[in-house]
UniProtKB/TrEMBL annotation:
It comes from Actinoalloteichus caeruleus DSM 43889. SUPFAM superfamilies: Trimeric LpxA-like enzymes (SSF51161). The keyword NADP does not apply. The keyword Transferase applies. InterPro entries: Hexapep (IPR001451), Hexapeptide_acetyltransf (IPR051159), Trimer_LpxA-like_sf (IPR011004). Pfam families: Hexapep. PANTHER family: ACETYLTRANSFERASE C18B11.09C-RELATED, SIALIC ACID SYNTHASE-RELATED. Keywords: Transferase. Belongs to the transferase hexapeptide repeat family. This is Transferase hexapeptide (Six repeat-containing protein). GO terms for molecular function: transferase activity. It comes from the Bacteria.
């Protein structure tokens, strides 16, 4: 039933890790994947090439997110990656066009992605290979990030573009508004 070739032997541990991880809580799953203990990584999230992922403390990875770290992926502390968000550090488009889309093709291009600290990447986003997202950036849901985004910005769309820049004073004022009772119930489930 199972193949016993080099590729299968290389892929099988990751497949089993994904399977076992579905039956764990966030902390257990983080430990299984070698992530910081403060990481909250939800069900069905997948990390491709976890040995190439650098993840800061207090990150949240949503259900169904795919973090492709095969080209190198760095995510700063206190950053959230939304539900079903896809972050890719490789592209096989040229391998497809040249009819050379096979495992190990030298036409699969890999470029690192860096996402800063204090970021919120909304659900159902797509981050393209080679992108740098600065610190304290919010990317609205359903966005495609194809270009770098500067620090302290709000971006949205396909392709994502910056709609607003904000400074520390604005963020502090919003925190005070929420803490002062203007926000919804903040208890964690």
């Amino acid at each position: 039933m199972f193949l016993d070739d080099e590729r299968s032997r290389r892929l099988r541990p990751g497949i089993l890790t994904d399977l076992v991880g579905q039956y764990m809580n966030d902390s257990e799953r983080a430990r299984l994947l070698g992530l910081p203990p403060s990481t909250r990584i939800r069900e069905r999230a997948k990390v491709v090439s976890p040995e190439r992922l650098v993840l800061g403390d207090h990150c949240w990875i949503g259900e169904g997110a795919v973090l492709d770290a095969s080209g190198g992926l760095e995510i700063g502390e206190h950053t959230s990656i939304g539900l079903n968000t896809l972050i890719f550090t490789h592209s096989s488009w040229l391998a497809n066009m040249m009819l050379e889309n096979h495992s190990g093709s030298d036409l699969i291009e890999r470029k690192p992605v860096r996402i800063g600290r204090g970021c919120f990447i909304g659900g159902l986003c797509f981050v393209m290979p080679g992108v740098v997202i600065g610190d304290f950036v919010t990317v609205q849901p359903l966005s495609v990030v194809a270009r770098d985004l500067p620090d302290r910005s709000l971006a949205a769309g396909n392709p994502a573009r910056v709609f607003q820049r904000y400074d520390e004073e604005h963020v502090r004022a919003e925190a005070e508004r929420v803490r002062g009772g203007g926000g919804a119930d903040r208890r964690e489930p």
